[in-house]
């Protein structure tokens, strides 16, 4: 999505929306510190949900809990209608192949080339030939906008933006339906961040992905998110369109979206849209 005039994308208009991620009563605690305190959240098929919150509030903790990387104290997490904690190992493995993950710093294996990183999920989950894996890896590189000669480079030889794209290619290796992104534009310059946002938006529409994106980047929220959910005090304190977020009287939401940076961005977008505020 190259034009910020499309900043506040509208949610899908289906009268009945399929829930891809359902979180109910989630409690996550480290020692005496309760990070999630009865949290509820739904993510609908085909949407890009931006998940925001203050530093240390637990945005990435929620994502890791949904993925099963952190143990929860209480609550139920369902993905594609299935309670992940109730599944036997074989069914859980099959479920996990329906999503891909881009971690904040890429988390590429430093001793493997980009091609080998992309092929890692294929080796673990598919019984296919090396030649076919090579072809697939090159297709994924092209999908995320990386040149063919990046395939045989090590992560240390790549720029920060290229690392993000290589990690995204690995996240797409098994053709997932659901994509988790943890601070995908962190560490990128404004131009690189805008290009990465555009890439995510294009992939989401082209591949029909559902995207759960942890972010603090207001530009990303405006440019590619259908809905936004906000975390504070261990609970989701608001979820809806950007228009809903801007209209909310909840103190944290007003401070986040109407603070100095938020107001400046709204004004900038309004000027680009001919004097109208983003809807």
Write up what this structure looks like.
The chain is of the alpha/beta class and 279 residues long. Helix content is 38%, strand content 23%. The strands form 2 sheets. The chain has a 6-stranded mixed β-sheet with strand order 6-7-8-3-9-10, sandwiched between helices. It has a 4-stranded antiparallel β-sheet with strand order 2-1-4-5, covered by helices on one side. α3 crosses α4, α4 crosses α5 (160-171) and α6 packs parallel to α7. It starts with 18 loop residues before the first strand and ends in a 7-residue tail after the last helix. The relative contact order is 0.17.
* Series of H and E elements: EEEHEEHEHHHEHEHEEHHH
Strand neighbour order, sheet with most strands: 6-7-8-3-9-10
Main sheet?
A: 6 strands, mixed
Distance between the termini: 16 Å
Tally of extended strands?
Answer: 10
Helix coverage percent: 25-40%
Helix count, DSSP H or I runs of 4 or more residues? 10
Strand fraction band?
A: 15-25%
Q: Pairing-aware structural class of the strands and helices?
A: alpha/beta
- Low-confidence spans: pLDDT under 50, at least 5 residues? 1-14, 270-279
- Please tell me how large the radius of gyration is: 19 Å
The whole-number mean of residue pLDDT values reads 88
The general outline is globular
């Amino acid at each position: 999505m190259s034009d910020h005039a499309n900043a506040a994308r509208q949610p899908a208009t289906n009268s009945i929306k399929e829930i891809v991620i359902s979180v109910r009563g989630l409690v996550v605690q480290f020692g005496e510190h309760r990070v999630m305190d009865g949290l509820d959240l739904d993510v609908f098929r085909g949407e890009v949900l931006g998940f925001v919150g203050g530093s240390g509030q637990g945005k990435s903790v929620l994502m890791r809990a949904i993925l099963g990387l952190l143990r929860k104290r209480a609550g139920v997490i369902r993905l594609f209608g299935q309670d992940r904690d109730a599944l036997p190992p074989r069914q859980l493995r099959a479920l996990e192949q329906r999503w891909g993950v881009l971690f904040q710093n890429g988390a590429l294996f430093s001793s493997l080339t980009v091609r080998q990183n992309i092929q890692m999920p294929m080796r673990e989950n598919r019984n296919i030939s090396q030649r076919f894996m090579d072809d697939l890896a090159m297709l994924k590189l092209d999908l995320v906008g990386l040149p063919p000669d990046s395939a045989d480079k090590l992560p240390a030889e790549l720029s920060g933006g290229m690392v993000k794209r290589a990690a995204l290619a690995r996240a797409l290796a098994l053709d997932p339906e659901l994509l988790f992104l943890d601070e995908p534009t962190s560490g990128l310059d404004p131009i690189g961040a805008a290009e990465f946002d555009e890439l995510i938006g294009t992939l989401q529409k082209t591949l029909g992905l559902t995207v759960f994106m942890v972010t603090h980047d207001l530009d990303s929220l405006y440019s590619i998110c259908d809905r936004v959910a906000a975390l504070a005090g261990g609970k989701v304190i608001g979820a809806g369109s950007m228009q809903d977020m801007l209209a909310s009287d909840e103190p944290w939401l007003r401070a986040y979206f109407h603070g100095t940076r938020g107001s400046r961005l709204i004004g900038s977008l309004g000027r680009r849209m001919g004097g109208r505020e983003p809807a």
